## 1
Amino acid sequence: MMENIDKLKSYLEMPREILIVSHRNPDGDAIGSSLGLSLYLKKKRHNVKIIFPSEFPDTFNYLPQSDDILIHDNEPDECDKVLEKSEVIFCLDFNSLDRIDRLGEKIHEKSGVKVMIDHHIDPEPFPDYMLSDVSASSTSELVFDFISDLGDQKSIDPLIGECLYTGIITDTGSFRFSTSAKLFRIVAHLKEIGVDDKRLQDYIFNSMPIKNMKLLGHCLNNRMEILEDYGVGIIVLNKYDYQNFDIQRGDTEGIVNYLLMMRKVRLGAFITQQPNIIKLSLRSKGDLSVQQIARDHFKGGGHKNASGGSFHGSLKAAINKFKSVLPDYIDKY
Ligand code: 5GP
Ligand code: MN
């Protein structure tokens, strides 16, 4: 439970100007937790705005009030105004201000009450209130806990539930990882109050454009390398792949997970050439920590079994670096 939650609770007894922010390239959990918390706070008569550093995938347009989210890349001036008048800033699904670039610098300088709700490793101690739990499946699960800890679980209605459920199924890959008995109890509750999980599954997982299915085939057939000795699978996409497949934000989401579907693979790496940077998306099974590799070598982090990072330099250099550090983390079979 959040320390001093009673103090925050009494601060929130009056209607406040509230800003919710989440991370760059928002995923289902960033969007679901932000909208779920926003709907709840609006119900409590607060004035709430959501800002993301960059745009989110169209997949999530079905979520209530997703149209009202402000994107800092597109509307920096409007975002500055909202930030300026906010009294409380909720930081969801990230734990250090450098994860949100310029917006992070602005929040750092801004006075006001700062609240973090997050489930990543190594939180930065910048907020006044913090609910940080690495054992949680998702930030959406923690938003459910937060509202419950405020003594207000009854305010969670089907619309809020739909947002939180979205974050839970995307971050757990439909209940494949980071599950707990507590999570299933929450999910049972959401289903009981009327969340239509089948409809959400169709929106999220059964809505792939044909183009993306073909991209997946291309990745598996032409861009995959397996280092059998280490139990490592790598998929690499270069800038020409981005052009040829007209890849947009969100289109590559989930591809890295296919690597772990092979029995022999215990670490999967998805390495992509972005306009100014090489991005790495890492996944692992069991005790093997990709968080350490991301943190030690790629200025990144995340969770033990799901992390990300970046590299400045050529695609080839990034791949070589990744391969060269593997022996420090994995014994040969
Ligand atoms: P993904 O591979 O899906 O982009 O990210 C997996 C996890 O790693 C997410 O929880 C995400 O927050 C974290 N992550 C991804 N990229 C970075 C990064 O550059 N820095 C840090 N600290 N975490 C990252
Ligand atoms: Mn998350």
## 2
Amino acid sequence: MTKPSKRIRAITGEGSDGWDLFYRAKDLIRQGVPVVELTIGEHDVRTDPAILDAMREAARAGATGYASIPGIPELRAAVAERVERVTGVATGPANVIVTPGGQAALYAAHQLVGDPGDRALHVDPYYPTYPGTIRAAGLVPVAVPARAEAGFEPVEADLMAAPEARSLLVNSPNNPTGVVYGEATLAGIARVAVARDLWVISDEVYDSQIWEGRHLSVRAWPGMAERCLVVGSLSKSHAMTGSRLGWIVGPAEAVELLWDLSTVSNYGIPGFIQEAGVFALAQGAAYEAGIAEPFRRRRGITQGVLAGQDVVRAAPQRGAMYALLDVRATGLTGEGFALRLLEEERIAVLPGESFGLASAGHVRVAMTVEDRAYEDALRRLVRLAGRIAAQRAHFPAELG
Ligand code: PLP
């Protein structure tokens, strides 16, 4: 083919990102090998038939033409109402633009915050698309570590000392760590943003999955409403990953600019999906709690299985559908351990290294199979780690 742009070639970056393991697991499954799949953050239930009925009815009633580009008024209003209820920040429909999922929202937000070559900060560990999303928008990603020893929360001094940049991307509840940022962390982020005149892109797609404390949005801190773009989505809160329905909430002027971007990219989201989104949001907070419930239970199972041993330790699991497990006591990297787990136990998890340097030596377990199978897989994971750690204690030289 004729030469493509450097920008598109640079999206995936260089080197292994640990997804090899994911494809290896998929290959095994294709060959008929039973593998317990704990890799991807997707519910083990499908979208509620009642939501699908709403989608079908909307389509049958004619919502199949071009839809309003920033989102149909009812959906913008419903998102504004939800964001205001969850975060306490005054929000109106003019603050909302509807996007094809949270991923497209992350991309659009980075298009808004900087010019080609500008730096964009993000916290490490991170959702693996972050650096590529930033590069696709023409910006240069710079990771700021949130270290295991600091409970995987970013430290104000590190953020303040990071290189000159236009924006900071944060994610709470966090994928992959399960950490929910506390008030002190969010206040620190807000102080840094104001002092350094940064945009903050706050990825809050897991805001309905909170196991301890409550969800706080950095947009609620003084001086933040005018510099904060909150990314949300129905993927996780309503088990609607395939519907591709998300949003950005921000200053009305920013929404006007994002509208221009939407006009030249997706040109709006299918009206029947937006109407299904209105129906889904109308089900309220109790419905969202029901969708989150299996993960809450499995978080309890995780804590039960890990109790009484100290080879495998979980990062603070305060939210989101994952357990980030520290397997450094085995002497293996996260990738090395994940490979042995796949080969020896036929359990697929993702290496912490796929999520950045700060989660090296960990594996991320998605709590996305039914309770008994989940518990059994986790027990086998812990037993394997125990065996490897015991061998290492006996033959330390051999294993290095
Ligand atoms: N942000 C985070 C932290 C995620 O984990 C995901 C998906 O797993 C997304 C954004 C994107 O979600 P979607 O595009 O389905 O809304």
